Amino acid sequence: MTAKEILAKLVSFDVLSKQNNLSIANWISDYINQYGVETVYVYNEEKTQASLHCRIGPAVDGGIILSGHTDVVPVKGQPWNTNPFELIEKEGNLYGRGACDMKGYIACFLSVLPQMVKANLSVPIYFAISYDEEIGCLRAPELAEHIKSYYTEKPKYAIIGEPSMMQPIVGQKGILYVETKVNGSQGHSSRIEKEVSAIHESTRLILWLENKMKELSQQNRNESFLPPHSTMHVGQIKGGIATNVVAGNTTFQWDVRSIPEDSIMDIVNDYQEYCNELQKEKRKLFPEFKIENTLLHPPVPGLQTSEEASIVKLIAEVTGNTKPSYVAYATEAGQFAEAGFESIICGPGSIEQAHRANEFVSIEQLNLGVQMIENIIKKISL
After folding, report:
1. Domain range list for the chain
2. What pLDDT is stored for residue 102 in this prediction?
3. Tens-place pLDDT, residues 185-207
4. pLDDT (0 to 100) of residue 259
5. Which of 103, 131, 147, 237 is most exposed, with minimal Cβ within 10 Å?
6. Residue 36 φ then ψ, to 5°
7. CATH class of 3-171+302-380
């Protein structure tokens, strides 16, 4: 099957994060198995979701992991012009949810599998396919660790194929989502000085996050990133029942995206310290005032691969792209790097198309993705 044909099949699986993904996992596994390659499942506790990995080539150190995720973001509420779960070709582009983020990359390496099994590889190639990436890169750590423990040999490189227009990306910011719940008192709005409004106190917390971001922008900067400092952003907020009722409850969710020079947990701990101080102060007026913070996923580490690393040189040789870049979005690359693999981001399509209506990957980019993997095979073949 061609990459385009495989991508059409992968796009047809409307599997979002948190959903049972065995339909797409089984299809990928069956496709790989037909070429005599054994796939290994890494299930969740309920066995309703699974990551996959496999090895092609000899069991020797120094192999290359090709990594992607199967889950996609929702389409509800987006103004799609076509069925998002049917691959549509138009004017050189392939439209569909996940076409660039990141089923296109998976389609690339699956399409080249027949060449891999026929080649006399000097080191192995591994496929590592995860799920629940879009909600906090939840499964990459266990997938990377499973690969390390399952095989007797140790892979050297990991190429995470997030859409980068086939440019090598050596740095990404870390990320964490946090939910803050504020419990205040309820009462008539005319008594605002006697009550503790959850909304008013939430604004103090949000202002603290904004001021903290400004403080960090002065303390630590890394001009490789845009913006060149750690950021905090509140994306959702809910609270209150009526204009003339002091709000008893508020919930807001925010994220922190950290440059390598900053620690995500240091930022979160500073925020918690401020929450504790505010809580102590407001309980003098309303003893049941409470601020609860919940980490919505484990902190996702950033990526900081040296521009002189051998993986950068490898990507330059197989793509022709020699200038490493840095991005503010998060991927599983930092997690593979933490597991001990020299990691880089490089894949077909543009991040500008990810998560939006009418997402697409160009046929040209898809072909370049295939070409990169074919060049890898040539480079490591005896």
Report:
1. 3-171+302-380, 174-295
2. 96
3. 999 999 999 999 999 999 999 99
4. 95
5. 237
6. 75, 20
7. alpha beta
Give the pLDDT confidence of 204-237 residue by residue, as tens digits: 999 999 999 999 999 999 999 999 999 999 999 9
Contact by Cβ (8 Å): 301, 338: yes
What are the tokens at 49? 């979701």
Residues of the chain scoring pLDDT < 50: none
Whole-model pTM: value is 0.91
Count the Cβ atoms, other than its own, within 10 Å of residue 135.
16
Tokens found for residue 119: 């080649």
